[in-house]
């Protein structure tokens, strides 16, 4: 008799080495070898990117497999063995956790926990209580904080909007060496697969975004709307080295799943990524390092917003805002510190309404058309050439056309978080899990 097991794990990587997805890719091969069948692509679930103790990308994995009892027992051993072997256990912040849950569908409580792990701050205690209540099993290494992400990955079934990422891995002898991925081939792939792949190349800088930097075992990753398109994209990319293995993951990348709309500024809380509306209180200003700051308010309160230097041209949109503009801001929320009050770090902005931009000029002479000179405060104006006077002390309001227009603005892809929904994805949102899987979604 076959049953279904969900295997969640997280927090295996560190800044130095390792990669949770690589453990997943190794396990895909090993679990199929012991006779298990995958009922979904491996799920790669990005969690709240704004909590201070996150690992590098804060990505957790869930493998969902079907098989008989002996094969599932063997799977448990294999998973624990691989997590132990490949985790950077000597690294202070790395606290891997593994969760196993047997059952067709994860309980609704796991799904709710997953949503909170994306948008809020949760504790290991909450995760362990759910594990006990629903007879799951949790195994933590060191501090075991990874149990949180492991449980969340099981609960996040990606039944709402989702995307795919095909990840390729380098052979051990190449890790740490420069990547030789051919830029022209990536451009060609982008042209042929757009808009069904995204964030391949940054249009402003021409920078290739599919390759990570440093000793990461990932050679490149292609993000897209279907397993078919990322598979086809792989065939178009010239890499200049042998690929050790590749796997297609189903993910919440590029979905904005972390952002939660709130009704008023008083509901904006630290570490809870948010979408909130307000009116700009003063003209934005540029601070040290080229970051642009402004504040918005509504009847409930006021909050600061920041567009950081890496958001590039996005800052010029923000700089064009003026007092009274109505906006909707999207982003993570940094807690107040001694230097800053609570700040929304902008991931995008929607300009809803523009205030009139008025400046005042001296009146023009009715005879020669030149600008008149003031005769002193409250004393009116005089044309120096024609000597014509004008008694009214009021300057003339001039309505300036606004440079910026209403609409949605998103920084260039190089500044995106994994979860940020890029412009090209608007209108391509999906609902429901895929009905089946393509042949050949991994190798070996
Ligand atoms: Zn004149």
Descriptive overview:
The protein is α+β, with helices and mostly antiparallel strands and 444 residues long. Helices cover 20% and strands 28% of the residues. The protein is built from 8 helices and 24 strands. The strands form 4 sheets. Strands 1, 2, 3, 4, 5, 6, 7, 8, 9, 10 and 24 form an 11-stranded mixed β-sheet that branches. A 5-stranded mixed beta barrel has the order 12-14-15-17-16. A 3-stranded antiparallel β-sheet has the order 19-20-21, with no helix packed on it. Helix 1 runs antiparallel to helix 2, helix 4 packs across helix 5 and helix 6 packs antiparallel against helix 7. The longest helix has 18 residues. It is elongated. The protein binds zinc ion. Zinc ion binds next to loops.
Question: Secondary-structure blueprint of this entry?
Answer:
Elements: E1 3-10, H1 20-33, E2 37-38, E3 43-46, E4 59-67, H2 69-86, E5 97-102, H3 108-119, H4 124-133, E6 137-140, H5 146-155, E7 163-170, H6 183-193, E8 197-198, E9 218-224, H7 227-234, E10 243-251, E11 260-261, E12 274-280, E13 285-286, E14 292-298, E15 301-307, H8 314-319, E16 326-334, E17 343-353, E18 357-361, E19 373-374, E20 381-382, E21 389-390, E22 396-400, E23 407-409, E24 442-443
Parallel strand pairs: 3-10, 11-12, 15-17
Antiparallel strand pairs: 1-4, 1-5, 2-4, 3-4, 5-6, 7-9, 7-10, 8-9, 10-24, 12-14, 12-16, 13-14, 14-15, 16-17, 17-23, 18-22, 19-20, 20-21
The structure holds zinc ion.
Zinc ion is lined by residues 365, 367-368, 370, 383, 385-386, 388.
């Amino acid at each position: 008799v076959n049953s279904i097991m969900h295997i969640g794990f997280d927090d295996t990587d560190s800044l130095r080495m390792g990669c949770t997805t690589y453990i997943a890719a190794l396990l895909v091969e090993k679990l199929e070898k012991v006779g298990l069948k995958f009922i979904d692509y491996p799920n790669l679930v990005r969690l709240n990117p704004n909590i201070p103790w996150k690992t590098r990308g804060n990505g957790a994995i869930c493998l969902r497999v079907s098989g008989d009892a002996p094969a599932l027992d063997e799977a448990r051993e294999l998973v624990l063995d691989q997590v132990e072997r490949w985790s950077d256990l000597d690294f202070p912040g790395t606290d891997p956790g593994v969760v196993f849950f047997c059952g067709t569908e994860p309980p609704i409580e796991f799904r709710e926990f997953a949503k909170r792990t994306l948008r809020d701050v949760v504790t290991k205690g909450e995760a362990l209580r759910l594990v006990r209540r629903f007879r799951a099993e949790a195994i933590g290494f060191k501090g075991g904080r990874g149990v949180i992400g492991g449980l969340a990955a099981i609960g996040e079934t990606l039944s709402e909007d989702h995307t795919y990422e095909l990840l390729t891995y380098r052979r051990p002898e190449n890790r740490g060496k420069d990547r030789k991925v051919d830029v022209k081939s990536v451009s060609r792939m982008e042209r042929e697969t757009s808009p069904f792949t995204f964030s391949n190349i940054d249009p402003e800088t021409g920078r290739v975004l599919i390759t990570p930097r440093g000793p990461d075992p990932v050679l490149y990753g292609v993000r897209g709307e279907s397993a078919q398109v990322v598979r086809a994209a792989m065939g178009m990319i010239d890499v200049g080295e042998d690929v050790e293995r590749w796997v297609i993951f189903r993910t919440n990348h590029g979905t904005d799943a972390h952002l939660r709309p709130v009704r008023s500024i008083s509901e904006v809380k630290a570490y809870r990524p948010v979408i909130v509306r307000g009116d700009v209180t003063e003209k934005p200003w540029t601070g040290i390092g080229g970051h642009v700051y402004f504040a918005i308010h509504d009847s409930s309160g006021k909050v600061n917003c920041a567009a950081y230097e890496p958001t590039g041209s996005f800052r010029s949109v923000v700089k064009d805002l003026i007092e009274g503009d109505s906006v909707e801001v999207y982003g993570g929320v940094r807690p107040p510190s001694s230097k800053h009050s609570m700040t929304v770090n902008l991931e995008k902005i929607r300009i809803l309404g523009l205030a009139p931009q008025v400046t005042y000029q001296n009146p023009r002479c009715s005879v020669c058309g030149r600008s008149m000179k003031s005769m002193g405060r409250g004393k009116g104006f005089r044309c120096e050439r024609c000597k014509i006077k004008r008694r009214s002390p009021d300057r003339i309001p001039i309505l300036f056309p606004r440079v910026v227009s209403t609409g949605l603005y998103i920084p260039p892809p190089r500044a995106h978080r994994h979860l940020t929904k890029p412009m090209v994805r608007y209108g391509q949102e999906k609902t429901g899990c895929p009905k089946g899987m393509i042949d050949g979604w991994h190798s070996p």
